[in-house]
């Protein structure tokens, strides 16, 4: 990597918005990796040299050409809502902030085309005007950008119906700008989108995306409480496999997690284990019978017509659960787990009892290859890195897949290996290894050999 001359760069980007104020640059070099006490010291002091905010694809091409020519590292950033340090620059350079590219190019029945910096909530609102909505979104949907979600996300609210982002059909097309001496625009469609999907900003600069939409349902929000955690979990699974009932969210929390949800205390009696649901209103009349079957009690219900008012249950689920817990107790961290398919949830039950309150069980139900799966974002009472690794190893020994949120190295996280097709595409679009360097073992080896 070349030594960066800030004056040279600011001159090269004279017509593009740039930020050089050290405090602002430092702020825009961060994400929510602070959820992990392991990552905080490892990423301390890692900041970019300059933030560049392109307003259109032509400006992206100009930035790419300049950085390729000068061999300057580029770290692409959306809203910085990720949790793994993936938009923290390991080698300084340019932070490419895509939030000014926020045009919704068009929305048609079942499909939308947008710029990378469009917020998920903005697209959802626009799509609903013609009776459609996004298939899935993270709990950060109000602030997260679509480009960031595709580059670093994997699923979320809606995944119980439509699976994960990486599933065939959940991303229709995208455009990337290459980091070559003469940057190109490459458009990928169909299965070719997987060359960039969930590639952590290492495989070209995403500028535009085409996404499938879902029919927009009127979603009611419901809290159901149970005396026993495993009964709550089995209720969640039963609702998940009730294919005739349309649902968008099934989150189940072991007590004492609800103590961290201050805005919802009146609906969750002490010691109870709640399920947070988003169910389509036409399916609601089937819910009481299922709740009764599992001995639960509906304590809260918000009709779809009030969706824009008051508390949003979705913002207490997925990664937001950890956020709420850490507001109360900053020593809490978390895991990300996928349990093998099992209708009896025996492994969930074993781990729930094995760790007790040290690892508080938080389940999210979603579909993987057609099967309803219990995923978990367990809250962990952190003591030491050694103990955290013991907890991870015990889960893995039982057959639980851990997407480790305590590493910024791609291969050590959820993926374990980088897809060979992504590597091949990487060599073509980023021949100098300038995109988000330092995040992959295999790429570091290639760059240094």
Automatic annotation (TrEMBL):
Pfam families registered for this protein in UniProt: FAD_binding_4
Lineage: superkingdom: Bacteria
Molecular function per GO: D-lactate dehydrogenase (cytochrome) activity; D-lactate dehydrogenase (NAD+) activity; FAD binding
Gene3D superfamilies found in the cross-reference section: 3.30.465.10
PROSITE patterns registered for this protein in UniProt: FAD_PCMH (PS51387)
Domain FAD-binding PCMH-type, chain residue ranges per copy: 43-216
UniProt-listed InterPro entries: FAD-bd_PCMH, FAD-bd_PCMH-like_sf, FAD-bd_PCMH_sub2, Oxid_FAD_bind_N
BP GO terms, sorted: lactate catabolic process
Protein's recorded name: FAD-binding PCMH-type domain-containing protein
Classification lineage: Bacteria, Bacillati, Cyanobacteriota, Cyanophyceae, Nostocales
């Amino acid at each position: 990597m070349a030594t960066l001359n800030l004056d040279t760069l600011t001159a090269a980007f004279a017509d593009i918005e740039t930020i050089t104020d050290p405090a602002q640059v430092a702020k825009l070099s961060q994400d929510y990796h602070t959820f992990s006490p392991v990552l905080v010291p490892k990423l301390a002091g890692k900041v970019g040299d300059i933030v560049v905010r392109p307003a259109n694809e032509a400006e992206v091409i100009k930035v790419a050409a300049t950085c390729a020519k000068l061999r300057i590292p580029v770290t692409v950033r959306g809203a910085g809502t990720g949790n793994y340090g993936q938009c923290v620059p390991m080698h300084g350079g340019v932070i490419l902030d895509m939030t000014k590219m926020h045009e919704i190019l068009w929305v048609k029945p079942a499909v939308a085309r947008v710029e990378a910096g469009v917020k998920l909530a903005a697209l959802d609102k626009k799509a609903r005007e013609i009776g459609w909505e996004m298939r899935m979104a993270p709990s950060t949907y109000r602030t997260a950008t679509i480009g960031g979600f595709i580059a670093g996300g994997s699923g979320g609210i809606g995944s119980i119906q439509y699976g994960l982002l990486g599933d065939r059909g959940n991303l229709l097309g995208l455009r990337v700008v290459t980091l070559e001496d003469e940057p190109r625009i490459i458009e990928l469609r169909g299965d070719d989108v997987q060359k960039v999907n969930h590639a952590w900003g290492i495989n070209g600069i995403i500028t535009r995306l085409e996404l499938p939409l879902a029919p927009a349902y009127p979603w009611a929000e419901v809290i159901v409480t149970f005396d026993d955690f495993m009964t709550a979990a089995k209720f969640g699974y039963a609702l998940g496999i009730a294919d005739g009932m349309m649902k968008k969210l099934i989150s189940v929390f072991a007590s004492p997690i609800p103590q961290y949800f201050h805005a919802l205390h009146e609906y969750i009696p002490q010691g109870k284990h709640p399920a947070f649901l988003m169910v389509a209103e036409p399916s609601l009349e089937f819910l009481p019978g299922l709740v009764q079957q599992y001995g639960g009690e509906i304590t809260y219900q918000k009709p779809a017509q009030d969706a824009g008012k008051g508390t949003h249950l979705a913002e207490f689920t997925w990664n937001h659960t950890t956020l709420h817990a850490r507001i109360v107790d900053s020593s809490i961290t978390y895991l990300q787990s996928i349990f093998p398919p099992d209708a009896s949830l025996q492994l969930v039950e074993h781990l729930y009892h094995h760790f007790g309150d040290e690892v508080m069980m938080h389940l999210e139900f979603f579909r993987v290859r057609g099967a309803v799966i219990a995923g978990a974002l367990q809250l962990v009472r952190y003591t030491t890195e050694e103990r955290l690794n013991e907890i991870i190893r015990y889960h893995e020994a039982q057959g639980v897949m851990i997407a480790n949120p305590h590493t910024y190295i791609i291969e050590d996280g959820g993926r374990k290996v980088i897809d060979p097709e992504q590597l091949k595409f990487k060599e073509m679009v980023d021949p100098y290894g300038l995109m988000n360097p330092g995040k992959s073992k295999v790429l570091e080896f290639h760059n240094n050999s």
